[in-house]
Amino acid sequence: MADSSTISVTGLGSAKGEQVAPLFLMRDPVIFPFSLTPLQVDEENLPTLRQAMEQERLLAIFPELPGDEELGMLPVQVPLKLFVYREKRYSGVGVLVRVVKELNFPDGSVRILVRGLKRIFCRQIELVKGISIARVQVFTDSSAENEDKENRARQKSVVAAFQELAAAMPGFPEELQVAVINAESPGRIADLLADALNISYAEKLLLLAMTEVRKRLEILAILLNRELEVLKLGMKIQSEVHQAMSRQQREFFLREQLRTIQQELGEDNRNPDIIEIEERLENTELPPHVFDVVRKELSRLEVIPQAAPEYHIAYTYINWLLDLPWCVFTEDRLDCAEAQKVLDADHYGLEDVKKRILEFLAVLQLKGGEDRKAPILCLVGPPGVGKTSLGQSIARAMKRNFIRVSLGGVRDEAEIRGHRRTYVGALPGRIIQNLKKVGSGNPVFMLDEIDKLANDFRGDPASALLEVLDPAQNFSFNDHYLEVDYDLSRVFFIATANLLDTIPGPLQDRMEIIRLPGYTSYEKREIAKRYLVGRQIKANGLKSKQVRFRAAAIDELIDHYTREAGVRELERCIGQVCRRIARRIVEGEIAPDATVSVTPALVQELLGARKYILDEAAENLGPGCATGMAWTSCGGVILPVEVISIPGKGGLKLTGSLGKVMQESAEAAYSLVRAHASEWGIEPSYFAEHDFHIHVPDGATPKDGPSAGVTITMALISHLRNEPLRPRLSMTGEITLRGRVTAVGGIREKVIAALRAGIDTVMLPEENRKDALELPEMVREKLEFHFVSDFREAMAVAFSPARKVERKKK
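and the corresponding structure tokens:
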């Protein structure tokens, strides 16, 4: 294009009425006919200007087109005529101007003042002596368009809109308003307004490119109405802001007047909230760092208007700081003998926990008032064994305040650490809230159900507890709301859980784990006699002389109406018996002054048929049968195992709702027995020609774990030797492929269940000998214990004769 001396532009009208003028290309501003506009002349257009000044001072100006994105934002989309020159796009419609004045400045820049004459169409561009000359067609508004009634009507509408806009915006010069009113033709008015309005470059270019007066007026009306709407919205916003400011200024002046009047009358004009806080600050003992924070916040509060939202945030924060028991502690009862009496009166058994509490009191007594860091305990055990109530007993024994927080289902980390004060309705976490409620800095603080914490996108509460339950960190616990360190080292934290599996390892490591096993039948009987019966008789409106529970009736409830590790369901059953006796008294079936003796028969009459059948070990199981022991969340049970073989192809079938670990244990036992079968005269072909079926009865109950390994092994050997095991023998232990019998858990619950089922001999792994020593004395006296290390020792016990003499004693 640059090498060509002539450039043709097609599609821009007919070739009639042509005129030539030097080509002046520019980006901004858009010049309209009849407008007077100053222009900056760049070096590229300077030769063109010189050429024009030597001739008729005419220039053909064609503005550069903006990008497609800017054009796409126009209020109406119309096809624009254009041409490309020197790799840039220019509007095919421009304006013919005359240079009115040329100004040359000392810095070498040149500015000109031009007046728009007519719209022009670019027909052709020629290069003459290095100067671009445009051959253009002049366009003039037709008289028919100017006289058209519709265009006249549009003219009046546009003028009215402009007058409304000019009345609201005083920036328009009076000369322009007069010129608009006095203009005769609609086309002239459209060009005057298009040049005067503060609209975008693309919108002005669109108005220049519209050769029809009607379209020009339509687009102009759209733009004027838009400017009016924007102006009205801005005025509305400004009015609302002004009203708000006026209201605040009015309140300020009224407050100042009120303050002046109070001073004249000699009245105290200080904020009563400030006076109250200062009085509390004088009477409250605070650590130095907390005192400094309160004074700083109080100075901020004095300068904040009471109606401001920040005032209430600061006031509430100061109250929280003053309400907390920073230096308030209760006096501990350090008499271990008295504390033990209280613990024994409230709970039967639980010796490990009681010993730990008494040890702590003994240490406090020796240390005096120095370094009294409280332990952090975690009581783990099945439901109903008294974990939660034990915390209240500990507080009563030590004469400390007691507070309990249930953590079950807590998902938000802010429940522990609190919310930042920047949030609306922010509060401290549960730790700080409950310390304020209890009113002392050394309470017994129970974190109930710590194993049921959850986590999600709001945070991990278990991780937030790491600082609370760490003696090395909790002396400077930082709540997000307080932002001041609080000393939790003297708080006696007691956590409770049913299982340790769901508690993160780092959290377990910070606590002293104390396990609370399930109660034996003997312990349940004693608990019922000492606590439950009396409590339920009183709770159901009866008197102790009206109801007497026999020991056999309590045993009936324990063995046949409850199956649990704790005593919660037992207490419900006792309460149910009391309620039904109370109803009979009210209905007249029993005299009010009579004494009802609760026997097993009366229990069955009041509660209906027995719910549970007590597990009883068979006297003679026969070959292929063995009795194991299992532990459940409700306590221990005996676990019979049965083995048969049928003609087949050497397969192994396992049934009885066995879990994956128990299935693997059975496979290991089968492989061990098969490897040593020749010792008992079993040919290898026997396994290839028979399928073995191992079944654990009570198939509706899921079972898992490795502790039935030795039981399955003895059942397989018994079947292969066709010899029954020793009667009333139960066993537990994991078996390895090498034949070793290794340790398992839940020994206490398993042994107690075996005793209850009529077992007199128990076989345990050698590694569990230490667990057997911790069994109650009454349990050890009634059972014969054997400890084995491998399957051969287990065979020696399993196939030995029974204790006939001891059986006769029973």
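(Above: one complete record from the training split.) DSSP finds 30 helices and 27 strands in the chain.
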